[in-house]
Fold this sequence. Notes:
Elements: E1 4-9, H1 14-27, E2 31-37, E3 55-62, E4 67-74, H2 79-89, E5 93-98, H3 121-131, H4 136-145, H5 152-164, H6 171-190, E6 194-199, H7 203-209, E7 230-237, H8 240-243, H9 256-265, H10 267-284, H11 291-308, H12 315-326, H13 349-359, H14 374-385, E8 391-396, H15 400-414, E9 420-424, E10 435-440, H16 446-453, H17 460-474, H18 480-492, H19 496-510, H20 516-531, H21 533-536, H22 542-561, H23 578-592, H24 599-610, H25 617-629, H26 637-643, H27 650-667, H28 669-680, H29 684-698, H30 703-716, H31 724-728, H32 735-754
Parallel strand pairs: 1-6, 2-5, 2-6
Antiparallel strand pairs: 3-4, 3-7, 8-10, 9-10
Helix pairs in contact: 1-2, 6-7, 9-10, 10-13, 11-12, 15-17, 17-18, 18-19, 18-20, 19-22, 20-22, 20-23, 22-23, 22-24, 23-25, 24-25, 25-27, 26-28, 27-29, 29-32
Amino acid sequence: MMGVTIIGVRHHSPACARHVGAVIAAVRPRHVLVEGPADFNDRIGELLLDHRPPIAIFTGYRDGARMHSSWSPMCDYSPEWVALQEGARVGAQLRFIDLPAWHPALADRQNRYADADQRYDRAMTRLQADFGAASADALWDRVFEVADPSGVGERLTAWFEMLRGDAAADESDAAREAHMASWVRAARRDGGDVVVVTGGFHAPALERLARDDDGCSGWPQVPSLPEGAQAASYLVPFSFRRLDAFSGYQSGMPSPGYYQRVWEEGPRAAGDGLMADVAARLRARRQPVSTADLISARVMAEGLAGLRGNRVPARTDVLDGLTSALVTEALDVPLPWGRRGAIRAATDPVVVEMVAALSGEATGSLAEATPLPPLWHDVDAEISRCALGPGEHRISLLSPSGLDRSRVLHRLRVLPIAGFQRLEGPWSGSEEVLEETWRIEDDEMRGPSIIEASGFGATLHDAAMAALTQRAADLAAEPVAAASAVLMDAALCGLGDLTGSLVGSLRAGIGRENDLGSLGACLSSMLTLWRHDRVLGSAGGEGLGAAVRACVPRIMWLVESLREIPGAGPSDQSGGRAPVAALAAVRDAVASGPEDIDRAAVLAVCRRTWSDDRAPARLRGAALGLCWALGEAPADPGRQVRASSRPQTVGDWLFGLFALARDEAVDDPSVMRAVDEVITAMGPEEFLVCLPGLREAFSVFPPAERQSLAAVVLSLHGTGTAGASALVRGGGPAPELVAEALAAEARAEALLSSAGLLGDHDG
């Protein structure tokens, strides 16, 4: 096409970046058009400030139906970055030509430069087979990154023509390509040479689409925001870690630290530097790496490069050479550079260090003159106003100033802004906690996280409100426990308007919820909010009270119909304990919640449950404990213990009882006397069956109370209480192991006895 040069590139490719820079320097075009958000064109000069890449254009979008965040990242060796810098140097007019990041055509992408590799998997598979390459990245390196740079333009054109072939773009890509082509045609009409830098998948389509004149004049119109929608774009520092395919990044080249060296020093020096970095990292972790190991790795890398047809060792040649020299154990999973995506679990630690060395640790920074969003300034003002400097902060929630500081910190937490961590304070439960402890650090990601959170709003209050509103909308179909966590966060942030709407949603969801664990967590959170007047300002609220009243009968209805607890036992702390925790929340609601909870109905369900042999043992114990905790004590608690003395279930039954009525059980001597009788009467095999459940049951008690119980047991056996602390101190073999050994000894003695080999005889 006369006057128009379209360069298809692979994003974040040093070879492509060099080619783009060389073409622009040679052509000195009037226009340089780059794949990027066209709504940023009025501010494209911001990208020419004295930044240190990697950086990204961040866009936040919000309307009544969706929220969307998007990044367009660039590093030193990104072709788009080089096109802008070199284009500015030769005096070209610079423009982005793609649709805005908020546009529906990009709605499914958080990263504008996400590769289209999935569209041409078959072509890549055929090419890999033809070239004998282990992966698409290894093939790319062979053809471009370590190859002779002469003729790279022709190779790129042939590469992307073959990969795109006759494949039709989907609806979103078709819309993007039509918009980009309109900018190319407009630049051609404006006169002078034009250089276009775009993802290689789009390049063949732009060649075809830009040939025809569409009859328009002037520059294309950038799509306008939908009515009522808000969007804002800002530059944000990025990092190599976020840019790395091994961390889950969707686009471009993996191992940005390595390719930064390829860009700065060339592929041979990059390989040498990689070996040095790997050795330094391993030695810092006290892993032996000898000079002989490195020589062996270098020799292997050179040999592999020759076998694979690489001019100098490429990335995978160096990595495979290092692996052969340094990894001495069999690998449980394939080497990560044979595929795209995050590193798998069970990857050899030496391999993990290799990948980390390739990734690099660079983080970009913005020039001082870079415009910042209003949220940046509001956060800075709020942090200064509340004197929230680095260090640990202990905050009293009883004072107005303390409560104000707490709310600011919680708003920073929910966005989330990096560097703010709460160590202690109220989350949920029935007890008031009147202090919080926070740790504040000067985190290098604080600035980027503030800019990225700016998509939620211009002030800390508004941004936190929008973030929690979005969380609530995303959780609309989730268990009510998840929504109650958002409710708790809204209260901790002091967002009263939001708590009211969330309570309404929770009330609607309670009647549909069938998971006892979720309902129990929800009730506990709502009860905390209803009771914490001084802390959260929500005590006695009618909406919360109504939600609590709705939750209690729903839990009791599910409890009475429950016949099995999946995962019950000490190995499953969530599934097995969740129904008991739900009954504990009911106990607290009846004891100190809204006055008009139907106490009689709760007690009636508990009576039926504790006497129902079909109900799970821990639920029967918990039902008895709930009645006892609410003042309806059993006539003879010891008899109830003895009645539930089956080895398979007594531990579960006691766990339920202790979890709901710990104080009552400890204060009644008949309970521990009965427990001691039941355990003493067991044989070794029965005790071994019973032991895990018993350990879980007594884990309900804090250490001081366990020592008191040990003293009670010792006194029952007439041995005094002096050794109580030794019984609960721990150490030595696990009780299960001791019990199993005793049982094995008993079986051996029985076997010997039956064979007549046991008894008194002369030596």
